[in-house]
């Protein structure tokens, strides 16, 4: 259970008024890139990149394996690794690797370059499939987000962030800001096409529920529906919002929402007896990678957490480190 102090802090957080941070171009750039502040604005950025001949591109790829064969359990990459070994399995030693320094705010660096680099380097990313409703309750919205993560379990807390975009903010952003409610749904292999379809730029008034054909499920503490096809759904209330403005001319602001879970819905046959664990073979999660790519899990390995008191007697390296520290 969480401490009284932690609960007190959470109450203070819920009562906190949403601030808006204005970040000037000069504050966001290093001194070496000050010229960027007066540079000609680059064309508006869109995360949706044009795709041509996609059907032709994938025509010769093998079909997706729907056999649901068990996820393989293997040994870790280097079972004989010892403390102090660093990385032993790389073909090129770390000392010989060359890294390039990049100033993300350089005048010759575009938003698109930063976007593509970061989403391909921070991967895989879990996909949070969010259900929201408008302030008047008339419009329902479904949308996937990979700028999403769990940040605590007691209380269950999540973050969902919205990047700046050309024009107005996303409907999900507006709905969460207005109603302070959402449902976070997990994404499994068998539903990825429907989830991806929900990101289409549909005209106002057309529901993503109808576009995707997904099934609405009841909720208890919030108005948005949950996705019944999802193995895990989380009803949530917004407890904090940080908004940022002034990134690029013509772009909307970005934001980070902190969401506390109020109810959890778990598919019965996917969990163990006391609903403390979801089987990976049932969840079959999808992760988002760079570009248009997604990844699935076909094999895993275990690595236990270790304790110094247990490991030091077995390791000459750890014993040496402790001895050197004592001699300082």
TrEMBL record:
The keyword Flavoprotein applies. Its cofactor is FMN. The keyword Flavoprotein applies. Keywords: Flavoprotein, FMN. Residues 120-279 form the Flavin reductase like domain. InterPro entries: Flavin_Rdtase-like_dom. One of its GO terms (molecular function) is FMN binding. Belongs to the flavoredoxin family. This is Flavin reductase like domain-containing protein.
